[in-house]
Amino acid sequence: MVGLANRACDRCRKRKIKCDFADPCFCCRTSSQACSYDVPIRKRGPKGPRDQRRQRNRTPVTPTDATLPGVPPQYSDGLLLLEKLRTELNDAIAQEQPSVPISTIAQLCISIRCHRSFPIVHERSLRADATYFFGAEGECFPTSIGQHGTKHGLALMRSFTVLTVLCAAQSFLFAKTTIQYGEAVGPKFLAAARAMFHYNEDVDRQTPDATSLQVRMLLSTCIQQHTGESGLAYHLVNEASLIARRLRLYRESVVSQYPPLEATLLRNAFWSLYSADSSAICCQNRAVILYEPLFDAEMDLQGPALNQVPLLDCEREGCMGTLEFGLLQSFHYLRRTWGNASRLLLSIRQLGRMKRERSDFDPAQLMRNREMYIDFSESLDDIPAILQPSKPLSQDASLSTAERSSFISLRYRLLSTYYFSKLMIIHECRVLGFALVVGLRDDDDVLASEEVNVARDYIYTLQSVEFHVLQELGEPGIELMRSVGSVLLAVSQGSDGRNKQRAVSQLNVLLDILARLDSQASEKLTAQLSVDAAIEFNTSPHDVASE
What is the pLDDT of residue 357? Predict the structure, then answer.
């Protein structure tokens, strides 16, 4: 046995006992067996970087009992991961909230999302997915995957991602109101959604569909609401916008080629992203992707199309046919408001650049901006009838409780968006010296007074609704408040006398609202505005925030 004199035999190595290196050794002699040396020797100690890379890059050989019958190999690993995530999520939610089943939480999150916001998801499909993943059907989950085969490959992973990220988003948004346990269960849903999303991310980019946009929009909401940080949230929504632009969803001829339900989902997702980019132009808080001059063809996508498929399940209790109609009407009014404001602001900024570069510029463009502002101002006349400020929704017996609550929230969004956009336009004109655009004389005190007037209207709108409505709008709503606070602070620092007093008074009201919201971002924003105001008025930040 040349070369084996100092090597333990296979039997001793397996039993992890000391070999005496005899032939046969003591262990083998007592078993009446000959020593064998067939098992190769492995290197001892931790693996080096090269070994770890080789191990990662080596294609795993999936054992027979770890594959799913009837499922192609490229989906098998993902579906096994899905089952693992589903099981772990069930266990985690049961541990955090043992009194409320995960299926009940999912159904509640679906109701809130579908009945409070512009529909970008299909309610019946989501509820069926919730029953499938978290209900009694889920007990035979691995078997059902194998029975359905390819139907539950990529589509099943996407459905799970949409469902879990939606539950996460609603849990975070409504943690202080409807979903009291949202802060506990939200991170669990988010972790499962992100794990499934990252596994499937490359394939999803190569072959995107409506869920690709839905997941990124909802993930953006989750990240911003959970952490209060905007960077990653903006990256996700920009990626969704980039996919929408790559698919050319701004063309009616493109969207109409899809099956009716998918076309409706893509149409609504595009308009939601387009509206978000328009608001970003007004706020100047991130880069935008869906900007019409960058499109390779004219944007002719319709709002609600003739073959629009209903996305809400209006056969459910508490949901009448007027709800989806009201949601669509209010959203497209919001979209037009953001769109008109963003186009006017871009035109004003372009005029400002021309003014800086040379003293002479086309006066006709100034008048065109004036006409655009008049059109914008008149848009308040076009608020949908059911959401008119004069209509007493709380006393309307024709509305269900869900509809009444939704329409009150929608009315607030319409009015606050209008006043916010108007304030940003007036502020831009004041900074650049274009008072004529907003119909005022070129007097800084007059413009500052008008800024305070519009900011006051915006703050009155905040005060006109129950506080939970402000909480449920989340971090994006707080960002708008921050921008209004910045304008008021600028007026207080740049004006004297009455304008300064009025700006300080309104700023204190806004700081109080931000402090009560007690969100991730509002703490930073309140502190920032309080410190700036304290420096200006030579007081302590605490005194400014509590006046």
Answer: 78
| Shared-domain flag, residues 14 and 133 | no
What is the per-residue pLDDT for 46? 54
Q: Are residues 351 and 203 in the same domain?
A: no
Q: Is 200 helix (H, G, I), strand (E, B) or coil?
A: coil
Tokens standing for residue 108? 């509640």
Give the start-end residues of each E strand in 463-503.
none
Whether omega before 40 lies within 30 degrees of 0, making that bond cis, reads: no
CA 539, 470, 527: angle at the middle one, nearest 5?
Answer: 25
Q: Is position 200 within any domain?
A: yes
Separation of first and last alpha carbons in the chain: 93
- Residues 17, 139, single domain; the answer is no
pLDDT at residue 525, as a whole number = 55
**Which sign, positive or negative, has the C-alpha torsion 306, 309, 315, 317?**
negative
Q: If you search the block for the tokens 């394939």, which residue do you land on?
A: 203
Mean pLDDT, rounded, of the chain: 82
Whether the Cβ atoms of residue 226 and residue 190 lie closer than 8 Å to each other: yes
Q: ω before 24 within 30° of 0 (cis)?
A: yes
Are 168 and 238 contained in the same domain? Answer: yes
Claim to verify: residue 99 and residue 216 sit in the same structural domain: yes
Alpha helices per DSSP H over 228-256 = 231-246, 252-255
Output Rg (C-alpha) for the chain, integer angstroms.
30
pLDDT on residue 398: 66
pTM of the complete model: 0.80
Q: Minimum mean pLDDT among 19-33, 34-48, 416-430: which range? A: 34-48
How far apart, in Å, are the Cα atoms of 146 and each of 86, 141, 192? 16, 9, 22
User: 317-376, pLDDT tens digit by residue?
Assistant: 555 567 888 888 889 999 999 999 999 999 999 988 888 877 666 778 889 999 999 999
Please report whether residue 36 resides in a domain. Answer: yes
- Residue 238 clears pLDDT 90, i.e. is over it: yes
Domains in the chain: how many in total? 3
The residue segments making up the domain with residue 25 are: 1-41
Which two tokens mark 453? 């007037």
Name the residue among 169, 176, 210 with its Cα closest to residue 190: 169
Same domain for 346 and 288: no
Same domain, 290 and 361: no
> How far, in Å, CA of 86 to CA of 89, rounded?
5
* Percentage above 90 pLDDT, the chain: 47
Choose among 195, 184, 172, 226: nearest CA to 93: 184
